[in-house]
Design brief:
Layout (H helix, E strand, L loop, with lengths): L1 E10 L2 E7 L3 E6 L6 H13 L8 H4 L6 E10 L2 E10 L4 E6 L2 E2 L3 H4 L4 E4 L1 H4 L6 H15 L1 H22 L7 H41 L6 E6 L4 H6 L1 H14 L1 H7 L10 E6 L2 E2 H4 L2 H21 L5 E4 L2 H4 L2 H11 L4 E6 L6 H5 L6 E7 L2 E7 L2
Parallel strand pairs: 3-13, 3-14, 8-12, 12-13
Antiparallel strand pairs: 1-2, 1-4, 4-5, 5-6, 6-7, 9-10, 10-11, 14-15
Helix pairs in contact: 5-6, 6-7, 7-9, 7-12, 12-14
The structure holds adenosine-5'-diphosphate and magnesium ion.
Adenosine-5'-diphosphate binds next to helix 1.
Length: 379
Amino acid sequence: MYIKELQLTNFRNYVRETLEFQPGIYVIQGNNGQGKSNLLEAIYSLCFGRSFRNFQENDLVRWNAPYYYLQGSVCLQQRLYRLEMGYETQKKRKVVKIDGKTGKSLGLDQKCPLVCFIPEDLELIRRGPAERRRFMDREISQLSPLYRKHLNRYNRIVSQKNRALKEIYHLKNREELFKVWNNQLVYFGSRIIQKRSLVVADWSEMSAQNYEMLFPEGPRLRMDYDTFCSPDVARDKIEQLEAAFSDKIELMAKEEQRRGYSLLGPHRDDLLFLLDDKEARRYASHGQQRSAIIALKAAQLQLYQQQKEEPVFMLDDIFSELDLRRRQECFALLRDAGQVFLTITEKDSGLGSFLQQFTFPSFFLQVHKGRVAKKERIK
Ligand SMILES: Nc1ncnc2c1ncn2[C@@H]1O[C@H](COP(=O)(O)OP(=O)(O)O)[C@@H](O)[C@H]1O
Ligand SMILES: [Mg+2]
């Protein structure tokens, strides 16, 4: 996949900007607050019909402007798609179009191979389980619209059930209600657990290979999806998984009522990173943790590539976060993308020498006050 054209109107701090791209590396430079991330956000939003930063549509509209409008074209599976997206503040009206037809975003319609790498990702291992669940959900939703549907249903039921658990005394026929909810939690939850387990297994295998390339002397990286049942049941045996879920959730009924929230299911699970079978969160150095994430990001790119489509790779502020060694690791994986957008603040960041290693074209964009002030080809 690659982005071919992008036009922003009243999007964030851009009044109007039109850009053309081709496969290759785009280095986007500018001081803080000039609009680098906004540009990446525009690309992402156009592909997926929503912001990667979990913002409301209102936030995307340039301050005091009545609407924003994005349009562009994307080449995917050798086909060119014209994409549009817009939002009118007053009417609260959002429109997403592909080839002039209103409806789904490209990312909902098909597998849209775009991988984002943001500084928060680098801290994924250190952060809490909720962040890691959010990470899985974000990435897997992108791979599977069905997963996103199941997840939305599941989350809605969990919050209904939690509300009821807190207000238990006002509820009539609560036993029945809990039974209905639990059945649904088991149904959707099992499918979420299964999908996460399968994807994490793929990530784990690829990430391990990447990590070994970076550190042949070890330790060995592995990732596990941590849930209430064994990995093989979680991955391949949906009936057994449902049965185990159903049994356990019944056993927990008392405890859930006592504690006032729902205690079992994918909303309590975790994604584990292990180095030589020891939890990286506790035992690995900060540098090792970051390398593990780089290996994972590479794995995500490679998995897209295996499906015969070169992914788009967006790195927002990653380079300023990394030391030289890890910059090199990171650069090694740019090869697995067809088009790269990376943002930096320093003009002379030593990127030039890195870029020499590549055969594909590289470009420099300078962003200043919501405008692309300069655009030149580096190579
Ligand atoms: N809806 C909006 N309308 C106008 N300006 C906005 C809007 N949202 C964010 N901004 C501005 O965009 C700038 C941040 O842009 P960003 O792309 O995050 O910067 P950076 O170049 O550091 O990545 C800030 O100056 C902020 O005030
Ligand atoms: Mg930024």
